[in-house]
Amino acid sequence: MAKHSNIFLIGPMGAGKTTLGRQLARRLNMDFYDSDRIIEEKTGADIPLIFEKEGEAGFRKREAAVIDEFSQKPGIVLATGGGAVLNETNRRHLKSRGTVFYLSSDLESLLERTHKDKNRPLLHGKESPEVILTRLIEQRDPLYRETADHIIDTSNDSLRHVIQAIISHLDNCE
User: What is the mean pLDDT of residues 89-99?
Assistant: First the structure.
């Protein structure tokens, strides 16, 4: 794999983008970034507060700016927010500036991984998290698939196995 190649991780909340991304970057000796954390650092506010003050549209505008900026950096692993693919420009930047992995996962795994997380404003609506996640996956799955170079299921595999699968895909693309 070329030293300057970028790896972008997309997928629903709870699929493991941040956890996997951090370890993958360490394994490949690359810099790791998480678009949600960057937004929080730049604003000095957490994601739920940004949603409360600016709405989802305000958050998505900030997200697009971060993805544009960071996807231009060489040799990085970038974990994006689950809704990053909603923006066509984001999808175009990710596809043209690196290798995109869609980390998919079954609903049960996503619910288990997100049920205690208070930093996910989209899950705290009037409907149950299961209904909300199901709807988000139905809406976003086609966009994840359109954007991805590779799809990796993170439902049941160990972190080590998923990282190895990603590295194998990268080695095969050289």
Answer: 96
In the β-sheet with 7-10, what is the strand arrangement from edge to edge?
31-34, 76-79, 7-10, 99-104, 150-153
Q: Are 19 and 13 in contact (CB under 8 A)?
A: no
Plot region of 67 (φ>0 → left; ψ -120 to 50 → alpha; else → beta): alpha
96: number of Cβ within 10 Å: 9
What's the pTM value of the predicted model, to 2 decimals?
A: 0.91
Mean pLDDT of the region 88-107:
95
Neighbouring residues of 19: CB distance < 8 A, sequence distance ≥ 6:
159
Mean pLDDT in the chain?
89
Kindly tell me the burial class for residue 166, based on how many C-beta atoms sit within 10 Å of its own C-beta (0-12, 13-18, 19 or more).
buried
What kind of fold does domain 7-167 have according to CATH? Rossmann fold (3.40.50)
- Domains of the chain by residue range: 7-167
